[in-house]
Amino acid sequence: MALVAMESVGDVGIQKDIPPWQLPPNAWSDGNNVRAWHGSIEKIPGYAEVMATCPVPPYYITYLAAGISKYFIVGGTAKIYVYDATTNVDQLNGSLTDAATTVTVDSTTGFESKGTITIGSEQITYTGKTATTFTTCTRGANSTTAAAHSDDAVVTRTKKWHDITRASGDYSATAAEGWSSTILGGILILVNPNDDPQFWALTSGLPNTGAVMADLTNWPASTECAVVKSFKSFLVSLNVTKSSVNYPTLVKWSTEAATQTVPSSWDETSSTLDAGEYPLQDGGEIIRDGLQLGDTFQIYTSGAVHQMSYVGTPFIFSFRKVSPVGVMAKNCVAEFPGGHFILGNDDLYVNDGQRVLPILPSELRDWMFNLIDGEAAQRSFVVADHGRNEILSCFVSADSLNTQIDKAVVFTYVTRAFTIRDLPQLSHI
Length: 429
Prior knowledge:
Layout: E1 34-37, E2 40-43, E3 60-66, E4 69-75, E5 80-84, E6 89-91, E7 103-104, E8 115-119, E9 122-126, E10 128-129, E11 133-135, E12 138-139, E13 154-157, E14 161-163, E15 180-184, E16 187-191, E17 198-200, E18 214-215, E19 223-231, E20 234-242, E21 245-253, E22 276-279, E23 287-293, E24 296-301, E25 305-312, E26 316-323, E27 333-336, E28 339-343, E29 348-351, E30 356-358, H1 362-371, E31 381-385, E32 390-395, E33 405-412, E34 417-426
Antiparallel strand pairs: 1-2, 3-4, 4-5, 5-14, 6-13, 7-11, 8-9, 8-13, 9-12, 10-11, 15-16, 16-17, 17-18, 19-20, 20-21, 21-22, 23-24, 24-25, 25-26, 27-28, 28-29, 29-30, 31-32, 32-33, 33-34
């Protein structure tokens, strides 16, 4: 039998709508654990454990880069941890005896105010530092014995997990509906529906693993919200609860924040501040998320998309309904070069700022939404992998063994091809 050459076999992806015998040669009638990549179809390479050392079950993870420093922040149900992925290297300035409780180096710049360093095979924990010295050192705590080291020995900052839970105590997040995050002027803000919003204050303009999260400064008392997102120099809180009374359609925004600081007030009654509130008027909806798109802020509810636009004093923001499309859950919207990608209640959509359009072929849509476990729909999320030009719509299928995310429909946004893949029973990506 003669071989037939087929070009661009990754450009079309999986097409369930058309009978296989009617498909073009470069289309696929079905498939699993493959991706459309550079005009071809390739196997998903598999998985590797990267959270084995995480001190808590990682129900939410986000990434923060500041200069050369890189941080992975994980939200558990009660704790928040950060993994410092930055390596700092220095040298001893003078020899070190096996009994020393201080370590002198050329410079401690770039090292945390407290932490752990490695010299040879020995790990040394310190609780303070000066410009050239690590102080109150505990020698050999993570090694067999304390050791002596010669002048110019290499001193390395040890990558590790840091507990940055607020000083006032544990959180009340849940596995089913946990955290979301945003960044305002380099400041990371994490939110769950049961606690005050948390922020990670900067130290000299940079994150510091020696500092812990704290309740958002100037946040109103006895108030919680489902989501907080940044928009211009404002923070916008969505689905607000006041004194245990939930207002699921309420949008509440802060006054403008100065550079590298959190807002000074959320007082909507002040005539001298930009802070305010607005209840969406359609009724019957629950705000689930929001995200900036160009010069607007898109608010995603269980039954519609609304647009929030800056108009200045006296109203500050205007609101209008954009589309009757509902989003499935929090964290089900992702930014990509075409606008916002949305995992909706009945389709996948793209919001370009003017229109919200469905993009799933009908048979693939029916397959996906028949497979989703409706009882666990709130655990769904989307994530953009810009390195591969992909967006993963992740959900709990009816076949999931432990009500964790086990399936994803993958959208390659350059070619607009769809593929399908399994996921290893996870909570977030």
